[in-house]
Structure formats: structure tokens, C-alpha cells
Specification:
Elements (H helix, E strand, L loop, with lengths): L25 E2 L5 E6 L16 E2 L4 E2 L9 E2 L4 E10 L5 E9 L8 H5 L5 H7 L21 E5 L9 H8 L1 H15 L3 E7 L3 H4 L1 H5 L3 E5 L8 H7 L16 E5 H13 L5 E7 L5 E7 L4 H7 L9 E4 L6 E3 L12 E5 L17 H5 L6 H9 L3 H7 L10 H5 L6 H21 L1
Parallel strand pairs: 1-13, 8-9, 8-11, 9-10, 12-16
Antiparallel strand pairs: 2-7, 3-6, 4-5, 6-7, 12-13, 14-15, 14-16
The structure holds iron/sulfur cluster (2 copies).
Length: 429
């Protein structure tokens, strides 16, 4: 972090370059058990379609509930051995399906049978569980006319280089993916966003596929989509809205590579690339099947997790800690970080001393020192109405600089989550 001596300018946190990560990724063996998450509490047991003992093939679409469009893609061939409940962040519960892997791998051919003529329906029906988690939701909303697709060849958090690595090493398949995306979505413009260091290596993606190339700044959080909307697209997003409301949809480089590979090979990509950040902050690129328990990755990469160490899914600024090494790799796991107990900064019970560090660093100019008072008191609606809660782009910088070590970012996420539940709760009532 660069900070001026007299402290009158904002401190600056910069993204790292890909130096040292362009070696071949560490390939993790196919796991003995793979687990997949399904949204929502595992309560509708009568409506469950999958059965214990059911055989599944690699690349097979799995639907857990009747009358639900949600699906996952089996990353292995094997037998469904367990359907259980998993407790996630903020006490949110979801269903977890565990598959015992068979000795011989067989590939499901359902996607191959329909992939010769790429269409948005085919992509939506088969690829959202692929590596990189391509999301086509905004193309289903008639109120959102998507005209521009942004392909992110950069990662939004510091120390994470997954999509930068993919942009630099898989430019051919991303170019195919961009062509297919343009064709099936009818988007008029595709923009490839790259950090300066990658423009030379991955710049061909822009030219060969008719996409425009844009350079992303090196200061955190330039690669967060909402910041890109303002700085790269020149279209600031109003509070409470998203890029989709402005006709823009973001895809990671890995998601686009998955689309390109799937429609070329007829197989849904189920191997995830991710950055493993060790306790000493050294990093290694890893390739593992979706569903692999992160314990398998730690064993293969020589990482030991001791008592009071912290496991974080995602990067150091915006990642979420998990409580078990059995947590599986998901289609959107771009990084796993292990923080040694000596580096975990403990949350204190000191009050806000009004130092103003959080206000000076906030890229959205939110009066964080005021906001945090309402969040601490659980007054979320007031925080949203009076202190710009919904303008927050969730960069985590305020927590990072807080001298009182207040968990401001966690308060913000909790507040947004609680407010998002109000319409559903009102409907239920
Ligand atoms: S996380 Fe904190 S610093 Fe970042 S935008 Fe939100 S309030 Fe501002
Ligand atoms: S950085 Fe922390 S202590 Fe300082 S004003 Fe912000 S919330 Fe208060």
C-alpha cells in the first residue's frame, strides 16, 4: 500500500502482476468424493428428484428439486451418496449433494447432442454450472436489453490472478467464446478488459474476435465491475441498480473460455482454475475438478492448516471465510487463501474514533464513519436512506484501514443481505 507521509492523500492499494504465476498449474487428482451446492434450505425433501444410489456421469445436468430450473453439472462419474444441508454465510442454508467417484469415467452426451447449433437456450440450459459459472440471467429479463458484453481478463481482488492467467494462456478459446456469445446474445459490442501487463499477451482476443480492448488501471478496486462501469464504460451505475440495468453484462475470461470450449468439444468444462494463496502470500495456480474438497488441494500443494488459521474463499479484500476444509470448489471459486493465525487481524470492540480513514479511502465517497454507527445499531433502513448503503461497491477498503479494526465490510454485507430479505419476508407474511 502506498501512503503519503503527511497523510493528506488517499492511500493506494495496487494489484499484483502475474509474475511467477505463468508456469503450468498444479493439477489436482480427481477427488474420491465431489460435492455440489444447490440454493435454498434443504427442506423440500418430498420434491427431491435425485436419489441416494443414483448413478451420474461427468457433465450430466443434475436437478435437485421438481419444479425448479436450478441445476448443477456433475464434475465426476459416480454415485450420489449423500444429500445434506450446508450452513453458509449469514446463516444461509443450502443443499449439498455428494457424489462418490467411480473408477472409470464416462461422459454424458446430452450437451453434445444439441451443441452443433449454438443458441442462448442451449447455453442457459447446460453451461451455468461450467467452470467460471457463465451467467445468462440478464438475457432472460425482458426489461434489460443487453447491448454490451464485458469480458474480464482480470480479477477484481488483489493477489488473485485466475482470469488474468486464463486470458494470457487461452486467448484462442476465449476468442471462440466471444464469437459464440456475440452470435447467441446479439450483443452489438464486446469489450475485453485487461490489465496493462496483459495487453501484449492477450491483446489478440480483442482484434481477432471483433472485440474492443480496454485497459484496466492498476489501483484497487479498478477491476470491480461497478468501478469499470464508471471508469472504463463511462456509465456510472445509480445506487441500487446493476450493470444489467444499463444494458451491460459482465463475463469472466474463464466463463467465456468455458463457452468456447463447450461448443467446440461438445463437453461441459468441469475443471476449475484457481489461485491458491499460501500463508506466506506465495501463490500457485491450481486446476481442480469442481466439487473437489479444498483439503485435497491443500494436501497436493503442501499447505497445512493449523488451529486458528483462517481459510478464505476468494481474495483478501472481498473473500469469505469458511469453517471446514471439506468445503468444495464451486464453479466460481477463483481463489482460496490461507491466513496464518498470527496474521489474522482480530476484530476489536473499540468504538469508532472518527479518525476519517475509512471516509478518505472509500472510492464511492460514502460517509462510512456515519454509516457504521447505524449498521452497528442494526438500523439498516436508515443506513440505506440516509448514508448511501446501496452506493457501496463492496471493495472492503474501509475495513482494511479502520484503526479500530471494526468489521465495517461485514456489517455492510449483513445489512444488504437483511434488506434483500424484506420483500420475500413480507410476501410470506
Ligand atoms: S466497502 Fe467500504 S470503502 Fe468500499 S465502497 Fe463500501 S463503504 Fe466504501
Ligand atoms: S476508520 Fe474506523 S475508527 Fe476511523 S472513522 Fe472509520 S470506522 Fe471510525
Amino acid at each position: 500500500m502506498k501512503k503519503s507521509f503527511i497523510g493528506l492523500t488517499k492511500p493506494v492499494l495496487e494489484y499484483q502482476s502475474l509474475t511467477g504465476l505463468m508456469t503450468k498449474p498444479e493439477k489436482i487428482a480427481i477427488p474420491k468424493k465431489a460435492s455440489l451446492f444447490f440454493k435454498g434450505a434443504y427442506s423440500q425433501k418430498d420434491a427431491v428428484l435425485l436419489k441416494i444410489g443414483e448413478k451420474v456421469k461427468t457433465g450430466q445436468k443434475l436437478c435437485l428439486y421438481k419444479n425448479s430450473d436450478e441445476y448443477a453439472v456433475s464434475p465426476v462419474t459416480g454415485t450420489v451418496s449423500l444429500i445434506s444441508s450446508y450452513l453458509g454465510n449469514f446463516g444461509q442454508s443450502c443443499a449439498m449433494v455428494t457424489i462418490d467417484t467411480a473408477d472409470t469415467e464416462e461422459f454424458d452426451e446430452s450437451f453434445k447432442a444439441v451443441c452443433a447449433a449454438p443458441s442462448l437456450d442451449t447455453a442457459r440450459n447446460f453451461l451455468t454450472g461450467a467452470a467460471g459459472s457463465p451467467c445468462f440471467g440478464c438475457f432472460s429479463d425482458p426489461e434489460k436489453k443487453i447491448k454490451t458484453i464485458v469480458v474480464c481478463g482480470t480479477d477484481s481482488d488483489i493477489l488473485v490472478e485466475t482470469n488474468g492467467y486464463i486470458a494470457a494462456s487461452k486467448s484462442d478459446i476465449i476468442t471462440k467464446g466471444v464469437s459464440i456469445l456475440k452470435k447467441i446474445t446479439h450483443a452489438s459490442t464486446v469489450i475485453v478488459a485487461l490489465p496493462k501487463a496483459l495487453v501484449k499477451d492477450a491483446g489478440a482476443i480483442g482484434g481477432a474476435s471483433g472485440a474492443e480492448l480496454r485497459e484496466i488501471g492498476s489501483e484497487y478496486p479498478s477491476a470491480l465491475p461497478l468501478v469499470m462501469m464508471k471508469n472504463v464504460m463511462g456509465q456510472p451505475v445509480p445506487a441500487g441498480k446493476g450493470p444489467g440495468d444499463m444494458g451491460v453484462c459482465f463475463f469472466s475470461a474463464e466463463a467465456v473460455a468455458s463457452i468456447g470450449a463447450a461448443f467446440t468439444d461438445g463437453r461441459i468444462p468441469v475443471t476449475k482454475t484457481l489461485t491458491l494463496i499460501r500463508k506466506d502470500l506465495s501463490r500457485v495456480m491450481v486446476e481442480a475438478r469442481i466439487g473437489t474438497p479444498i483439503a485435497d488441494i491443500f494436501t497436493a500443494c503442501g499447505v497445512t492448516v493449523s488451529e486458528k488459521d483462517r481459510i478464505i474463499i476468494g481474495g483478501p479484500m472481498t473473500g469469505v471465510s469458511v469453517y471446514t476444509e471439506e468445503h468444495p470448489v464451486t464453479p466460481d471459486t477463483d481463489a482460496i487463501m490461507v491466513q496464518g493465525s498470527e496474521d489474522v487481524s482480530l476484530v476489536s470492540d473499540y468504538p469508532c474514533i472518527n479518525c476519517g480513514e475509512c471516509v478518505r479511502i472509500c472510492p464511492m465517497n460514502i460517509p462510512v464513519n456515519m454509516l457504521v454507527r447505524f449498521l452497528e445499531a442494526g438500523q439498516y433502513e436508515e443506513a440505506a436512506d440516509m448514508y448511501d448503503l446501496h452506493c457501496c461497491i463492496e471493495c472492503g477498503l474501509c475495513s482494511f484501514v479502520c484503526v479500530s479494526k471494526m468489521p465495517i465490510f461485514q456489517y455492510i454485507r449483513l445489512a444488504k443481505y437483511e434488506l434483500s430479505r424484506i420483500p420475500a419476508a413480507a410476501e410470506e407474511a
